[in-house]
Amino acid sequence: MAGGVLLVMVVVVGLAAAVLVSAVSGGGGFQRVLTLKRAFPVEERVELEVIKARDRARHTRILQSFSGGIVDFPVGGTSDPYAVGLYYTKVRLGSPPQEFNVQIDTGSDILWVTCSSCNNCPQNSGLGIPLNFFNAATSSTVSHVSCSDSICASIVRIASAECSAESNLCDYSFQYGDGSGTAGFYVYDMLYFDTILGTSLQANSSAPIVFGCSTSLFGDLTKSDRAVDGIFGFGRQGLSVISQLSSLRITPRIFSHCLKGEGNGGGILVLGEILDPRIVYTPLVPSQPHYNLYLQNIAVNGQLLPIDQAVFTTSGNQGTIIDSGTTLAYLVEGAYDPLVTAITNAVSPSVRPIISQGNQCYLVSTSVGEMFPAVAFNFAGGASLVLRPIDYLVHMGFVDGSPTWCMGFLKVPNKGTTILGDLVLKDKIFVYDLAHQRIGWADYDCSLSVNVSLTSGREEFVNAGQLSVSRSSSISEPFRIITHNNYYAFMVHLLVLLVPLFL
């Protein structure tokens, strides 16, 4: 029965095309008749897998030339350091696709997952998520990046890879700011994702990318309490996934997230531009490996703090960066001390300041939102990042029956880096506009849907976040991918109308 329906569908497509040609020819605009040939002969029964294989090849060609789709990723995790303390998403790699939970990290560039041969890798996770290992031997599309590959040569120049003369593999070994790290080798393989082409139009898509296959971990990455399958780097360099997909013209050079802070966390992550009229933008510091911004001053209750601007200067390891891979926030000493003093002086007399384990804390009898001041980080271009008390305080339990809240900003030396992590980023839209070298933000309830532009600068919007379209990981309908070409749209609609007549 399925084969008969499929045969009818092929015939109907041919009829629809003939109707279109006839209509064009009879309208007087064109006098030429197009000769059409069926891809599959009517007399032969065609297996569904053959149709699907042909469609997948065609869809790949369409996506290669399509500019402006957005990619939607699910988000899990929270900013609460005593719960998850990180945000993660799912990626599908290899053929057939293998699924991995990876931390969202704007402070690094590489997407890597643990290999089946990984040493010191956790076998289970305290986050309640399954841990998986990439098995290159089971993927039909994998290939190793060799030392002679031009990709490896470019990576070596930025010191995140080295070549093994024995294995001829493009290896890597790098360390994160917290002292943890990973080592392994680079591979080419397919990344599968959902591309949104328009309102309620979604394609199950794929693209070849370079990513890391980690064979060893060290530091906190070896611990099971918050273990994930890898790290998804969203940095500014050419090997990040956002850079690779934009170079293939699959996505624009812009991505956005909205990380939910309350309840169970979660949020929204899209390779595309979230739109909101309240978003303010500030320029990125050029020629930096991270998302460095020009922090100019800090205000408490509208009053500027007496801070030497030199402590915010970007040079070497000094500056101010946005980093979703950091849970808390870090502030240089020359800004931290004036900030804590101003907050302490501004709180209600009923709040009792204390020092706990070297941190500035407060015993609070009522809601912190009513007892603490607003803090504004002011950046170049007039963009202010206004922080509520829950954006800079962390609940640490109880002392003498009173809730204890401590500063979520930790002090670093003046020659260090100010880092704004998830504590500050949560409950806000953040847009990383690499095409225009700027970052924007706006307060937002990240449990709600968002408007997303299909292409930066084009007036086409779709709803993302709480998507109504299917998240199926396989292509089960032959005409699921629809381009913006009116011809194909006409064909699909005509097919929907005519198929019931033949059943």
TrEMBL record:
<keyword id="KW-0378">Hydrolase</keyword>
<dbReference type="InterPro" id="IPR021109">
    <property type="entry name" value="Peptidase_aspartic_dom_sf"/>
</dbReference>
<keyword id="KW-0645">Protease</keyword>
<comment type="similarity">
    <text>Belongs to the peptidase A1 family.</text>
</comment>
<dbReference type="InterPro" id="IPR034161">
    <property type="entry name" value="Pepsin-like_plant"/>
</dbReference>
<protein>
    <recommendedName>
        <fullName>Peptidase A1 domain-containing protein</fullName>
    </recommendedName>
</protein>
<feature type="signal peptide">
    <location>
        <begin position="1"/>
        <end position="18"/>
    </location>
</feature>
<keyword id="KW-0064">Aspartyl protease</keyword>
<dbReference type="Pfam" id="PF14541">
    <property type="entry name" value="TAXi_C"/>
</dbReference>
<dbReference type="InterPro" id="IPR001461">
    <property type="entry name" value="Aspartic_peptidase_A1"/>
</dbReference>
<dbReference type="Pfam" id="PF14543">
    <property type="entry name" value="TAXi_N"/>
</dbReference>
<keyword id="KW-0732">Signal</keyword>
<keyword id="KW-0325">Glycoprotein</keyword>
<feature type="domain" description="Peptidase A1">
    <location>
        <begin position="87"/>
        <end position="442"/>
    </location>
</feature>
<dbReference type="InterPro" id="IPR032799">
    <property type="entry name" value="TAXi_C"/>
</dbReference>
<dbReference type="InterPro" id="IPR033121">
    <property type="entry name" value="PEPTIDASE_A1"/>
</dbReference>
<dbReference type="InterPro" id="IPR032861">
    <property type="entry name" value="TAXi_N"/>
</dbReference>
